[in-house]
Design goal:
The complex is a heterodimer of chains A (about 650) and B (about 300). Helices cover about 70% and strands about 5% of the residues of chain A. Among the domains of chain A are: about 200 residues; about 200 residues, no CATH class; about 45 residues, no CATH class. Chain A is built from 23 helices and 5 strands. In chain A, the strands form 2 sheets. Chain A has a two-stranded antiparallel ribbon with strand order 1-2. Chain A starts with a helix and ends with a helix. With about 650 residues, chain A is mainly alpha-helical. In chain B, α3 packs antiparallel against α4. Chain B has about 300 residues and is mostly helical. Chain B has one domain. The radius of gyration of chain B is 19 Å and the shape is globular. Classes of the chains: A mainly alpha (about 650), B mainly alpha (about 300). β3 of chain A pairs parallel with β1 of chain B.
């Protein structure tokens, strides 16, 4: 694992370097970005080699003279590592021109240090092989990302976002540590391998605790509440990294624990599938109702995590029912979607960052017409939007296709699993339609039409370090959509490493499935090219003029007459208001003469709305009862400390 | 070979069949109606003209018609016309076709929002709303077909003797599926009672208003795409409700096109006898089709061995 640790060293060193040369902001950023990108490139290549290696490599290091940290790089870890390093590399490149506020060099230097730390700890979590290593790296990862979210700490809402994130990540970490503690209590060792020998009931507890803990990092309903606050608060390349990669580390934890527990009952699959259904549908409906672009993208990440969970759930049900094809299709679909989502969500967040950087606003209804002023951003955002809707010939289709196929295989099962499979298929279909509505809204309101504010009218796109990663990711969306074989091989290798008991997973049956998609995608591209030629021929020698948009004869059309994002989504949201309560404020115009009015809409997150009275208030009431402990008398406090020391020394 | 011929024939006849609907509506209005070849002369007229482009639009506006026609034409390539094997088929191609039609829809919506017109935004919002439920119905129907045949390709449902096998396995509940698919046809192709293609009020349109700003050859491509899409859905319904495939290919084609005429006439009848639903009642209408498909699945499950 030499190259792996060398890559991590490069990344951390690159991140720490700016702390030494704060006086030259541009050089510091360029140096950091180059070093981190170099480290990521090395790590990505190494991970790809390890993905195809026959035997996993492991290493054990001593820690604090008492424990040992052991790391193991097997194909599953390598799969996630490739995503971590690739997106990390592009995010590092993006940050050079994004963080160009020369007025805050010290803050930027600390930011790069934490950025390097985040990348390194995310990589270490995926290779951690024992409890201490995993918990240590997990906590460091949470702390690093917390610091990164607090980049703009002057704004109250960013501090609130960081606070929420801290609470949820610590509660999640507690659940994870509790799950590990249960394993340790039974195996007595610090490794994760012995977990397969746990009794049934303990396995249920371990899985549920781990699911909740990892789920809070992954953004599963209802522990996703921090997601729509923290992802917009962070700088855009960090949002891209968090949404594109860190959420998947949570999913990696669930997958790893499932593989280690060797617990093949249908209960696990059903739990995961239902969680995925709920997260997917609620995520996309909430995304549709957002006015803030980055919040929309954050909720959309929740939706895609739901799709991945649905794939995993269907796969687990397949394993429990003894249907290997269904299991492999489900897990492969989920893992493929991990990669696909990393590509297009990072692309979308980078586009959002570009927009925010040059217009100063994230509110969609204040933008518009950016397609003409920022053509490359608009084009790549369009590709990302199409990819995330899962339409061919882009990459999002292939992974959803596999999840569909797994769901259809599940139709042959018995009662509960049959019903759940039907729900999964119908939910995926509706998620697809809702995602199309969401991203046509985002694309149309921001980049098309006319600018709704001077900020949008004066926008331009500058900064090749921001444009290049977006172009690379957009090209990847198209390429992996038309030639899905590349990612398929990687995905199947990772699925084989899940230890489902199928040994080597053969490539041929699954490659046949993707051959059809690839053929169809190429055919589509060919037909579009043909029709473009036909259109050019039809327009030869014809008169083409330009004029203002027809407004039904209205004498003075303005940009404010366009459809806004709120109006676009209004009817869909009012249909789904049972699961996404919609607050609307629209004072009526009274009297004979025209008067001013406004329309305000706000979609409430169901979990956030009920968090206050279901969780916070009972907890506060409980701790209020314990208030008598803090009475301010220092002698009693010293007494408490003495008692605690005695108890710890005597009994523990 | 026969498939290619049938595809070319289908593409050539799609505008003719669409004119049938106009004739039926005129008949019930006591009028003579436009000639059956009206759509051909309209397309030719449009191709002779130039275009006026709105100053608000970008390249997406020009791509919209191309992609919508491409996806509709490709959908026809996957359809087993007259029971002959389709031009392209692979496992799961139904899902591919449905999502590809979604691609066409995205481009049309983007082209509509590109014009900065409130009317087109209205149409785009509705076009994004109703197909969500159509997808649910279509996938519910796929669940039923997969339960019966175990396959996920259009060929396994519609080619050769397969439709007859579907009827034998599912029985009368397939009538519910046919009705559900007709409702989806009406919703996806902007027919009464979901949308009135003959209305003059932009506030009440869905599809017509989205393409308001297209002109000349662009509009011809859009119209042709709409004809192909209607042909695709009508062909789907036809193969289900007339499942016979005689051994002779020519006789089979004749039977298919004759049954197709009946389907188009039925659509014309619905357009003549029903009024358009209020916009907020349309989801109920489309969800009725979902309920029918789900009900058919439940009944089939009960009686399947």
């Amino acid at each position: 694992m030499r190259f792996f640790f060398l890559a991590l060293l490069l990344i951390v060193a690159g991140g720490a370097a700016p702390l030494l040369c704060i006086r030259r902001p541009t050089a510091m950023r360029a140096l950091a970005a180059t070093a981190m990108a170099g480290g990521c490139l090395l790590g990505a290549f190494d991970a790809i080699f390890k993905l195809f290696a026959p035997v996993p490599v492991s290493i054990s290091l001593a820690f604090l003279n008492e424990f040992s940290l052991s790391f193991k790089l097997d194909p599953l870890s390598a799969f996630f590592l490739t995503a971590v390093f690739t997106i990390g590399m592009l995010a590092a490149l993006y940050s050079v021109h994004y963080l160009d506020a020369a007025a805050r060099p010290a803050r930027t230097a600390v930011h790069y240090f934490l950025f390097g730390l985040l990348l390194a700890t995310m990589a270490l979590v995926t290779v951690a092989d024992n409890i201490i290593a995993f918990a240590l790296c997990w906590e460091l990862m949470s702390l690093a990302s917390l610091g990164l979210v607090l980049y703009d700490y002057e704004q109250g809402r960013n501090r609130h976002a960081a606070y929420l994130y801290a609470v949820f990540s610590q509660v999640g970490a507690m659940c994870i540590v509790a799950a590990f503690a249960l394993i340790h209590a039974h195996t007595g060792a610090l490794g994760l391998d012995g977990a397969a020998g746990l009794p049934e009931k303990t396995k249920i507890w371990v899985f549920v605790l781990a699911f909740v803990g990892f789920g809070s990092k992954a953004g599963i309903f209802p522990v996703h509440i921090w997601l729509p606050h923290a992802h917009p608060a962070a700088p855009s390349h960090i949002s891209a990294l968090m949404s594109g990669v860190m959420l998947k580390i949570g999913l990696y934890g669930i997958l790893r624990l499932y593989a280690v527990l060797d617990w093949h009952t249908p209960l696990a699959g059903r739990l995961v599938l239902i969680a995925g259904l709920v997260s997917g549908v609620l995520g996309v409906i909430n995304a549709l109702g957002q006015h803030d672009l980055k919040r929309l993208l954050a909720y959309s990440s929740m939706e895609n995590v739901g799709i991945m969970l649905m794939g995993m759930g269907v796969g687990m049900i397949g394993v429990a029912a003894g249907k290997p094809i269904m299991a492999v299709l489900g897990f492969a679909g989920a893992l493929w979607h991990v990669w696909n989502h990393a590509i297009f969500k990072s692309l979308l967040f980078m586009g959002a960052g570009m927009v925010l950087h040059h217009t100063g606003t994230r509110t969609m209804d204040r933008l518009g017409g950016l397609g003409k002023r920022m053509p490359i951003t608009a084009g790549t955002f369009f590709v990302g939007a199409l990819a995330i809707c899962g339409v061919p010939p882009f990459n999002g289709f292939a992974s959803e296709f596999f999840v569909y196929l797994a769901g259809f295989s599940g139709l042959a099962l018995a009662k509960t699993d049959f019903v759940l499979s039907v729900f999964a298929i119908i939910a995926l279909a509706m998620i697809g339609g809702l995602a199309l509505a969401t991203f046509s809204k985002a694309m149309g309101v921001i980049f098309l039409g006319e600018p709704r504010s001077p900020a949008a009218a004066n926008a331009h796109e500058k900064g090749w370090c921001m444009l290049l990663p977006m172009l690379v990711l957009a090209a990847a969306c198209v390429f992996t959509g038309v030639f899905p074989g590349v990612l398929l091989t990687m995905t199947l290798k990772a699925t084989a490493a899940l230890g489902l008991g199928y040994g080597r997973v053969p490539l041929e049956p699954f490659a046949e499935l993707t051959v059809g998609i690839g053929r169809g995608a190429l055919l589509l591209v060919a037909v579009v090219a043909l029709l473009l030629g036909l259109r050019a021929w039809l327009y030869k020698g014809k008169i083409v003029t330009a004029a203002g948009t027809w407004g039904c004869g209205f004498a003075r059309p303005t940009a404010r007459m366009q459809y806004t994002g709120a109006s676009y989504a209004a009817s869909i949201l009012s249909f789904f208001r049972a699961v996404a309560p919609l607050d609307e404020e629209h004072p009526a115009v009274r009297g004979r003469f025209p008067d001013r009015t406004y329309y305000l809409s706000h979609v409430q997150d169901l979990a956030e709305r009920h968090l206050g009275h279901l969780v916070v208030r009972p907890v506060q009431r409980f701790f209020d009862r314990l208030r008598w402990v803090q009475h301010g008398d220092i002698h009693m406090y010293i007494g408490f400390i003495l008692i605690a020391i005695v108890v710890a020394l005597v009994f523990v | 070979m026969q498939s290619i011929l049938l595809l070319i024939l289908a593409m050539l006849l799609a505008p003719l069949y669409a004119a049938l609907i106009l004739k039926v509506k005129a008949f019930f209005g006591g009028k003579k109606g436009p000639p059956l070849l009206i759509h051909y002369s309209t397309l030719a007229k449009l191709c002779r003209k130039g275009s006026v482009y709105s100053t608000s639009t970008t390249w997406i506006f020009k791509m919209g018609p191309v992609v919508s026609l491409a996806t509709a034409a490709l959908a026809l390539m996957f359809l087993p016309l007259a029971g002959q094997p389709a031009l392209v088929a692979f496992k799961g191609d139904v899902i591919f076709v449905l999502y590809m039609l979604g691609l066409g829809r995205f481009f049309i919506i983007a082209a509509a929002l590109d014009t900065a017109s409130p009317f087109e935004g209205m149409g785009a919002a509705r076009e994004a709303y109703f197909p969500i439920f159509c997808e649910a119905t279509l996938f519910m129907t796929l669940v039923l077909f997969h339960l019966i045949t175990g396959e996920l390709r259009l060929e396994s449902y519609l080619a050769g003797g397969q439709p007859l096998a579907l009827w034998r396995a599912a029985g009368a509940p397939l009538i519910l599926v046919v009705i559900a698919l007709i409702i989806v046809l009406l919703a996806e192709n902007a027919r009464v009672p979901v949308d009135d293609p003959a209305t003059h009020l932009e506030l009440t349109m869905i599809h017509e208003v989205m393409v308001l700003d297209h002109s000349g050859p662009d509009f011809a491509l859009i119209e042709l795409g709409a004809f192909f899409k209607l042909f695709f859905y009508a062909g789907l319904v036809t193969r289900l409700f007339c499942p016979y495939t005689p051994d002779s290919a020519a006789l089979g084609a004749l039977l298919f096109f004759a049954a197709l005429t009946l389907v188009y006439l039925f659509v014309g009848l619905i357009e003549s006898f029903m009024a358009r639903y209020r916009m907020d009642k349309v989801p109920q209408f489309v969800l009725t089709s979902f309920a029918l498909a789900a009900f058919a699945t439940v009944i089939t499950l009960e009686f399947m061995p």
